[in-house]
Design a protein that fits this description.
It is built from four helices and 24 strands. The protein is mainly beta. It folds into two domains: 232 residues; 146 residues, no CATH class. The longest helix is centred in the N-terminal third of the chain and has 6 residues. The termini are far apart.
């Protein structure tokens, strides 16, 4: 580290996942992408300061943005700023992995416990984007109800809690018409810095799909007259895109409960009624427990789900069940596994996640479609190939009510096992999850699941 330069003290080495196009579109980084921002601070930088941002390098899922005030026609009293900020796309969202710049202006608050070799600064647009929220900078998928915690600062001494507030139409200098932006608000805290409470406050960022941040508003702590930092996108060669759907079709919210009834026309005409509860949630991954209420199946168990940019995925499941002798289901494959290792249909979620992942994409819309591969983890577990497609949003009426639900149709083939083959249609309602499922098995029986309450 060079004296007089702000350099990151940490390199983040987690969340090494496969990225998706969605992450790329919230902060695009083609080699020729450019942005210009103008920022001010109501106390420490009243002179509007223009910064040019370009893509310095890009490799795989990682990329580096560079900014400079040089050659931007700024007034003489505007602060000089040159630096870089590094990002990595993961299926959990956008991470900041590194940063560096010249030292902030001497008039700015010192954001460390000591002024010597302090690695923190808020004297640029992108420093205000990553402050207190580096892992992740932006959690994904960005859907209704999304909240996350993050940390930042050179000493990892800045913490934030962020909430996605939805979208709104916003006007910024870069565009001659209003654009739709996703709003993320973060409560940020830092303690122990010489410049307290400047490092704490409420930051709001407006993200435009296909462009990146277009507005940043940081209302610093300190009461009446406290500083306010504002940055606006002045120009860019990036084009706004329609935001993806932010409907949450499978909410992983702790305490959420659902009761289902399921039957089969040939093997279980008397309904099995079961309760499901989301009882643990960490970083958009959840544990969902199940227990029987009444009917011919006595069952208890749990399932693990995770929601990432590559979709809603079932990652594990375990059940213990007893079925009344008169209700005997056909065996499932695959033949490659011993009988004791094969799956069973004991619960509605067994029917729902059977076959292959994902259950649906992160931002589902018709006519999204995907294939069940003939290799990999899912094939080893289920031995199922097939094809899935989003049909769109349909009206579904079940005992719990009438819903506008996302329909997902999946064709399944388990070689040698008709009960494990057929066509499944699942309906997911926003903020509710699964509300109905119809599995037309190849043995001409039909399993039906409905949400009771």
């Amino acid at each position: 580290m060079h004296v007089g330069r702000v350099v990151s003290a940490l390199f983040v080495a987690l969340f090494i996942f496969v990225s998706s196009a969605a992450a790329d579109d919230w902060l695009p980084h083609a080699s020729d992408a450019t942005w210009s921002y103008t920022w001010t601070d109501s106390v420490y930088n009243k002179t509007p300061t223009k910064e040019a941002v370009t893509v310095k390098e890009s490799k795989g899922t990682s990329f580096v943005l560079a900014w400079t005030t040089d050659g931007q026609g700024n007034p003489a009293d505007a602060p000089d700023s040159t630096g870089t900020v590094s990002f990595q796309e993961t299926n959990a969202g956008l991470l900041n992995t590194d940063w560096s710049s010249n030292a902030p202006p001497q008039a700015f608050p010192i954001l460390c416990a000591s002024p010597v070799r302090c690695g923190n600064s808020l004297a640029s647009t992108y420093y205000n984007v990553i402050w207190g929220g580096r892992v992740p900078v932006l959690s994904e998928p960005l859907i209704k109800g999304a909240t996350w915690t993050s940390s930042g600062g050179a000493g990892n001494d800045v913490a934030s809690t962020s909430r996605y507030l939805g979208t709104e139409s916003i006007t910024v200098p870069a565009f001659d018409h209003p654009v739709t932006a996703a709003i993320v608000r973060s409560d940020i805290t830092q303690a122990g810095a010489l410049g307290d409470p400047y490092g704490s406050g409420v930051r709001t960022i407006w993200w435009v799909y296909g462009v990146g941040p277009v507005k940043i508003l940081f209302e610093h702590a300190g009461g009446a007259g406290a500083p306010v930092t504002t940055a606006l996108l002045s120009s860019t060669n990036q084009t706004p895109k329609a935001s993806p759907t932010d409907d949450n079709y499978f909410p992983l919210k702790k305490g959420l409960k659902a009761r289902y009834s399921w039957t089969n026309t040939k093997y279980m005409k008397k309904a099995s009624v079961q309760d499901f509860t989301v009882d643990q949630v960490v970083n958009s991954s959840a544990r969902v427990s199940v227990k029987s209420v009444k009917g011919p199946i006595k069952v208890a168990g749990a399932y693990g789900f995770t929601l990432r940019t590559d979709g809603l995925t079932n990652i594990w499941g375990t059940t213990q069940a007893a079925v009344l002798p008169k209700y005997k289901f056909p065996q499932l494959g695959p033949r490659s596994l011993p009988k004791a290792k094969r799956r069973h249909f004991f619960t509605p979620f067994d029917l729902m996640d059977y076959g292959f992942n994902p259950l649906f994409p992160a931002y589902p819309q018709a006519p999204n479609n995907w294939e069940g591969a003939g290799a990999g983890r899912d094939f080893q577990v289920y031995g199922v190939t097939g094809h899935a497609q989003i049909l769109g949003v349909q009206t579904v009426k079940v005992p719990a009510g009438t819903f506008q639900a996302l329909a997902v149709r999946t064709t399944l083939n388990q070689a040698g096992y008709k009960f494990g083959s057929g066509m499944r249609t699942s309906w997911f309602a926003a903020n509710k999850g699964l509300v109905k499922l119809v599995f037309k098995h190849a043995d001409r029986s039909t399993s039906t699941v409905v949400l009771v309450k």
